[in-house]
Amino acid sequence: MVSLQLDGRTVVVTGAGQGQGAAEARMLVEAGARVIATDLAADMPAGLAVVSSTSPGALVYRQLNVSDASGWSDLAQWIRSQGWQVDGLVNNAGITQRSRLLDASVADLQNVYEVNVAGVLLGIQTLAPLMASSSAIVNVGSVAGLTAHYPEAYTASKWALRGLSQVAAMELGPRGIRVNSVHPGFIETPMTASAKAEFRQATMAETPLGRTGSVEEVAGVVLFLLSPLSSFVTGAEIPVDGGQSGHGGAKSVSDAMR
Ligand code: NAP
């Protein structure tokens, strides 16, 4: 059957308190999933409270710092205590860090890696044992991991995440667990709200679709990658960037030749 429905499936989303993670959690509930939304806050963030009680799925909120191994163990233990297995994991939590090559410190690199890389590794290591065949993991990278971008620590972390994703796809494939990554371009979220106007303009100039993206446009691809419609897709890296990473720098040349 052709269906994006996730009825009866349990999906963990990290960094789900706002931005893309909240949109992913909301859309997965709409698709019928039981979503375990997690974030740093102790209480359920307001953006998640708007999930309608008439949605086909359900949402529960748990506090989780993805860098904290014991927090992941507690989450796994709690899921087991509910009698659930995990069918999907969206490693969405991430932080940005905008220092440039000659200014980036080792501490900058470590701070970003702790969340953007180690946080994903811990999630996979902790929850894969709770996953049966036909489960799926989606890691949220960035166009920064497909290009030189410009901030050193963030860019390096998103390239590292691609390596982690590919190893995980290879290692977990025999167990029927798929691992894919999505690579958003400029998406309107609280993270990008603090970006400089120059960055926004320059990014749009490099984006063939000529605009920024919405959180729902990322969530839709995440939903597809968790659904049975993508059952033979693993190890894929899908840009959700309006074409920003696809032209390899040719856009300014093309624009100049019009
Ligand atoms: P966002 O608006 O900043 O939301 C990220 C969420 O993750 C926040 O709720 C944040 O909590 C939470 N978080 C931060 N550190 C965490 C940790 N250690 N453990 C658990 N949760 C943590 O970001 P976003 O724009 O939605 O980005 C989501 C993902 O997409 C990130 O991986 C980001 O790198 C990636 N991305 C975003 C864009 C974009 O244009 N927005 C582009 C490419 C890639 P607090 O608010 O409490 O810190």
Automatic annotation (TrEMBL):
Protein name stated in the entry: SDR family NAD(P)-dependent oxidoreductase
One Pfam family of this chain: adh_short_C2
Protein keywords: Oxidoreductase
Record-linked InterPro entries: NAD(P)-bd_dom_sf (IPR036291), SDR_fam (IPR002347)
Family: Belongs to the short-chain dehydrogenases/reductases (SDR) family.
Keyword Oxidoreductase attached: yes
Gene3D superfamilies tied to this protein: NAD(P)-binding Rossmann-like Domain
PANTHER family xrefs: 3-OXOACYL-[ACYL-CARRIER-PROTEIN] REDUCTASE, SHORT-CHAIN DEHYDROGENASES/REDUCTASES FAMILY MEMBER
Presence of keyword Membrane: no
